[in-house]
Amino acid sequence: MPLPVSLHVKTLAVKRRIARLLGGADDPYPVPPGDVCLSPSECHIHDYDDVPLRLSWRNGGERNAAEWQHAAGAKLAELSGYSRPERCPRARHEQSHGLPGNLIRKSCYLSAGAARDIPIHVIFNPSLKQRLPVMICLQGTNSGIHLSWGEVRLPIDVERIQRGAPNALQAASRGYMAVAVEQACFGERRERRIAKPSPDPCIDAANHALLLGRTLLGERVSDISAVINWLESGAHGMALDLARLHIMGNSSGGTTALFSAALDKRITAALLGGCVGYFRDTIARRADSSGQNVIPGILNWLEIDDVLALAAPIPVLLFAGREDHIWPYAGAEAVAESARAVYRELGAPDRLRAAPAEGGHSYHPDVAWPAFEALLSETA
Q1: CA within 13 Å, CB half, 107
Q2: Total domain count for the chain?
Q3: Does any domain span residue 26?
Q4: Domain that holds residue 88
Q5: Residue 49 in domain
Q6: What pTM value is reported for the model?
Q7: How far is CA 248 from each of CA 255, 283, 319, 372, rounded to the nearest angstrom?
Q8: Fewer Cβ atoms within 10 A, N terminus or C terminus of the chain?
Q9: What is the pLDDT of residues 81-121, one digit of tens each?
């Protein structure tokens, strides 16, 4: 005789609690036959072996590298929804702040379009009178760009700063005008308007961008191009050496920096940490609650080595922890080795390098800066 419904429900609940306490999962569904594949990932992983990568350099045989970059770059812009803004954004609500080490931080909001404002912070040493090179500084998936100048706004920031997060201070101390840019979905640009936002800070914006034929990543790169428009305009009133317009970032900041270097040819060098590995080996095979790196249809045309090759021939340094559980160094090294074919075709094989760090998924300034500066000096 079957149990009453209420007792049956209670029994199921107890079984599930016991399973969780024992570290397992209570699966109420029947075990499928051994030759039946039901998980969606099984189909996707199988199909990765047959993706066409129609514009991939390694599938194209003999071709002109510059012509390939033009075609592949246009396709990447189309798929990501990237567009280079035509106008120069207007700076609003400008303020000036002092920082330790005789540095100055100037902050403002750049109006990059209707209902689209970008918080930026320019950090520099005012005693330097020469034309300053520029380093665009991006943070990863964390509490915001304030980490770039070492400001604590959340308890976890103390640990992040101790691990070397203040990349804009590091850049300014090396003679750069550091331009720290708040990425969409983080810090001041976290979601505040929609009702009941998702726990992950990026997934709502990523999904909503898709409805418009764009991607969150493409929008972030478009923001970087808007910032470059402002830098070129001279509206900031500073003497800049835009022949040395560099970009750096770690994790999701590194991803934005990589795609920016691929799509905006005004960038002349890139320092990229903890963000490079083949799509099919990384985001395509794991849980993804954020969607921030997803570009629909990308594997029909390009892999990440092609994106990296689009930056050629500018100097690019990749770095990552050997034990990085998200973007391990081994993956970055493999991607660099493949992309170097295009660098070689353009006569600059030494301008793409990878440097390992000991440890996991973290920014590693002690490895990144010396390797990047050596790359610049040796390939000048």
Answers
A1: 12
A2: 1
A3: no
A4: 67-378
A5: no
A6: 0.93
A7: 10, 21, 11, 10
A8: N
A9: 999 999 999 999 999 999 999 999 999 999 999 999 999 99
CATH of the domain at 202: 3.40.50.1820
CA distance linking residue 314 with residue 344, whole number of Å: 12
Contact call for residues 105 and 123 (beta carbons, < 8 A) = yes
CA distances from 377 to 57, 371, 380 (A): 29, 10, 5
Amino acid letter, residue 142: N
Listed residue (309, 324, 329) closest to 259, CA to CA:
309
C-alpha closest to that of 67 among 342, 270, 340: 342
Q: pLDDT digits over 191-245, tens only?
A: 999 999 999 999 999 999 999 999 999 999 999 999 999 999 999 999 999 999 9
CA–CA gap between residue 317 and residue 332 (Å, rounded): 10
Task: Spell 193-203 as b/e; 16+ CB within 10 A means b.
Answer: eeeeeeebbbb
CA 128 to chain centre: 31
| CA-based nearest residue to 263, from 226, 211, 294, 300 | 226
The answer as to whether 54 is a domain residue is no
Neighbour order of strands in the sheet with 103-113: 90-99, 103-113, 116-124, 177-181, 132-138, 240-250, 269-273, 316-321, 352-357
* Residue 155 confidence (pLDDT): 97
pLDDT tens for 18-45 read 767 777 666 788 888 989 999 999 999 9
Residue 38 falls within a domain, yes or no? no
Length of the chain equals 380
**Residue found by looking up tokens 């395509």 in the block:** 284
